[in-house]
Batch of 3 targets.
Target 1
Amino acid sequence: MKALIIGGGMAGPVTGMACEQAGIDSTVYEAYDRTADGVGAFLTLAVNGLAALRTLGLSDLVRDKGVDTPSMVAEMDGRRLAEFSFGAPLPDGTRNQTITRADLYGILRDEAVRRGVPIEYGKRLVSAESTPDGVLARFADGSTARGDLLIGADGLRSATRRIIDPNAPAPRYVPLLNAGGYARGVTLPGEPGVMHMFFGRRCFFSYVARPDGEVWWFANPPQPTELAPKALAAITPEQWRTKLRDLFAGDDFPALKVIDATEHIFSGWNTYDYPKVPVWHRDGMIIIGDAAHATSPASGQGASMAIEDAVTLAKCLRDLPDIPQAFAAYEGLRRKRVERVVAQGKRNGDGKAMGRIGRMMLPTILKFVAKTSSRQGWLYDHRIEWNEPVSTA
Ligand SMILES: Cc1cc2nc3c(=O)[nH]c(=O)nc-3n(C[C@H](O)[C@H](O)[C@H](O)COP(=O)(O)OP(=O)(O)OC[C@H]3O[C@@H](n4cnc5c(N)ncnc54)[C@H](O)[C@@H]3O)c2cc1C
């Protein structure tokens, strides 16, 4: 069996390696050049995502470059409101990892190639069609590729999603912007690795201090109406600095200190999610990762869901007699879980942009959430057993 994997972000290379482990050949086709990797930001990979990487022997590679992030502390007006655990560590002690996006993409792509999964760059999928013996993919550079199936791991603006279902809904705009950076030479309270969240009067702020003293931070300025990509790109880093300084002026947490200690502010992402994509597969084509169920970054689970998808799909293709049955089994295993994560991400994001009354209620809400977060086993304790066969029963 030969799989054409569209997208060389998070899900694409992991799918390639999972397919390889399942005895399926694949090639990854990525629209951009490899040099587009270093888009600045960082993310936190949850223990459930790391456990999925572990089934492919990849979690140690991530751990080597990441920072242990065992928990999250919420603060407001100088008061510590609650502490949330990010789930129990894996048996070898692995905790949530905070890692730069560039490092994570680089690790996954290099390891995929090392394991014999080819990655072709500059290959933007523009159309695909079913043929009597599989799928034919066409790329913007005029080239084509044939395979038995096509896996769209091509992210939020997925071309594969449109090809499978031209009536697929558009992503939902979540009214928060994303900006952040890496600060040096600033000393902050708290244990290295712990994620600190501050509910400011006008804007949400968060930081993780690394053991080497560098501080990784992000902010989520509320933005009620969606800004066009051009308008967003036109805001300079220095304009962002001024905007953020204004938003945090008078707040009782170290945002200004951190912003001033940051040489380059990376910024300019709108936030979107995808509460429900009705059609995930048609004929020999399927979507996974953000293409099928993008979640607001506030869930902290987008990358982990993409990785779980990759491993689960490879198992289904390995164990079921044909591609339609494998796709159906995959959807049965994944849909409820990922839609629950997207819903939770939306709720978390809403909590970052509360009005005055919301802020008054926040301490009570967070205490309740912290108490019930011990019931988050469904999220963090999810494990995929590679050797356990998938059945349709
Ligand atoms: C600001 C921000 C913060 C985040 N923080 C976190 C976090 O802390 N924790 C977490 O788990 N998740 C986080 N996420 C979400 C996470 O990054 C995504 O869920 C994850 O990257 C999804 O992986 P994916 O492979 O589906 O998509 P992507 O990683 O987006 O990869 C898609 C790839 O497909 C390529 N592509 C697109 N179109 C085509 C085409 N037509 N042909 C070929 N290739 C194509 C793209 O260039 C890209 O390389 C965050 C996201 C954002 C925006």
Target 2
Amino acid sequence: MISNEKYIELARTYGTPLFVYDGDLMLERYNDLFRFIPHERLCIHYALKANYNPALLSLLRDAGAGIDAVSPGEVVLALALGFDPEKIIYTANNMTDAEFDRVMKTGVTVNIGSLSRLSKCAKSHPGAKICLRFNPDVCDGDNVMTMTGGDLTKFGILLQDADRAAEIAAGGNLHIIGLHEHTDSGLQHAESVLKSMDNLMAIATGERFPELEFLDFGGGFKVPYKDDETPIDYISMGKKIAEKFDNFCAVYGKQLLMRFEPGKFLSAECGTLIMEVNTIKHNRSRTIAGCNSGFPQLIRPVLYGAYHKIINLTNPDGKPALYDVCGNICETGDRFAEQRELPEIREYDLLAIKNAGAYCYSMGSVYNLRPMPAEAVIRNGEVADFRKALTDEELVTRILQK
Ligand SMILES: Cc1ncc(COP(=O)(O)O)c(C=O)c1O
């Protein structure tokens, strides 16, 4: 665990805004999953979209993780970092023919989520080994925009089309080696995972799909963002998952691999964004704490209304007051928190935004032409990897490049 004093020291050394990642915590979360789901054929494929910091990815690679990639760029990065193609699953949606061909050539497992793409694959890549993504028909998640199962989403083949999918695959002599579903991000109910597993297993019969090597149940494991959140009982959930999978394999008649693809669970808690307050402003009823970061660097509060805990690192014992914690971007909605009670914030205080390791840097942009912050990965209390921010001039040079 990184202490507040260490965050302050890092901010003083490297400047702000600064993303700090606790590599040890990420590995702890990776190991937690094996503790929760007691199954010898469990494989964890990290959802790279959550955070693509190369040093963090290397830690997971060395620990034995695979990758869930959702674009050719993510596949290229995972391969460049030495992930075994057999441990990469490519689950893009609405992919072009060119993207599909390109990724098929790399040897990673391509996960197809529409009958249309499946028909094209049967024609263009007869005899290929592929995975099929189904919509599990279960709705869960912490935000409507991250619910991926059920009627309203664009993802996966409908369960009712399983026979049609098997028929199309057979037409192209395709080998269906895996079936996949992903229900949500920010799981609210353990039962949803179990129900989605049941629904996928119900169509995964030996008659329909005789060549299965794995079932992939996606990501979605939540981590607490607020102190008073009801936690998921992962020990009890994991035990049920393992039992359910064993029962399935016994009926299927083969010991398949069980895959999960967590992103947030592995990386959210390990990340912290440190920023400095430069302006305190009293706008009649509101006090605004203006910081040197903004929503392009951590967009979840603006995009999803997500709550991120904020800590006043340099004045933790200040008298509590309500603040709008705002960024430096030309948008009224550029707020990390609205009317949040925090210890008195003064100009030049350092604030830490917690759970900034998932879907923060990776969703970032240089809107307003502010370069993304530097990133420091900490191992055993020391900086193990540092990636500097682009200077304004470097950013502009890239923009001017043709
Ligand atoms: C196919 C797929 N797998 C895994 C994940 C990871 O989800 P999470 O970060 O909530 O674990 C996502 C995220 O949206 C996804 O779309």
Target 3
Amino acid sequence: MFGECHMHVFMNGTDYRRAVMEQREGKCETVVRRNLEAYRRHGVTFVRDGGDHYDASLLARQLAPEYGIDYRTPVFAIHKQGHYGGIVGHGFGDLVEYEALVRDAIAQNADFIKIIVSGIMDFNKAGVLTEASLSSGEIQEMVHIAHEEGMAVMAHANGADAVRSAVLAGVDSLEHGNFMDRDCIQLLAEADTIYVPTVSTIYNLLGDNRFPDREVRELWNRQRDVIAACFEAGVRLALGSDAGAYCVLHGQGIEDEYRAFCLSIGESAKLKVQLMEGEQRIREKFRRK
Ligand SMILES: [Zn+2]
């Protein structure tokens, strides 16, 4: 069974408001245990969290051995104030504040640093992002500072500009990567970066009614083509479903992600081997030194 290389333990995949309420009501341990149990039930023994601001992933890492799970966490994700990312972490105003957040995560025994350098997709309008990405100079500095502290970097990036900047800055894993172009795929193929497309967040919306099906289908077609082109080009790929996000359930999510990959590329021994290799690299890189 594959590991889950991108999830958020405090979310439930169905109702974000309820997830927030449960944290506010002090039900963190109940939520964390429920979700760890879902991974155990699905035979998932490796989990990498994408962060939260409730310390839920910290508790999850502490409890995970009871469920036979090797759990990694950035503690919280780091975003620039005024930009996307507040739902999974803390914001910085300038790079001095950024560095302080990196040190704070390290002080809390983070396994790696998670940064957010772009917006998210608009599911009502295929091809559109909620905002422009951070500048390539900023992205470069953010990655450099984390690396100087000896930490691997997991980067949320959508859009060709953000993806290009993140890969050139040397991020250790690239998350989402929607709307990347050929140039990005070529850069990824030449880089050491592991790409985690989290396509379940789109694939699982097919037939759901929250967003227009035409737009969801268009997004799915685009990301499916990107995954196929990445595989063809020899990009290092790994499975992470963003479980906890809407329509992506803990435990089940990684099976959905694998199915979406098989639909994009076709199931083969080569695909399995490549995904296992990508996961293995994540296991090796994204751990406390
Ligand atoms: Zn995520």
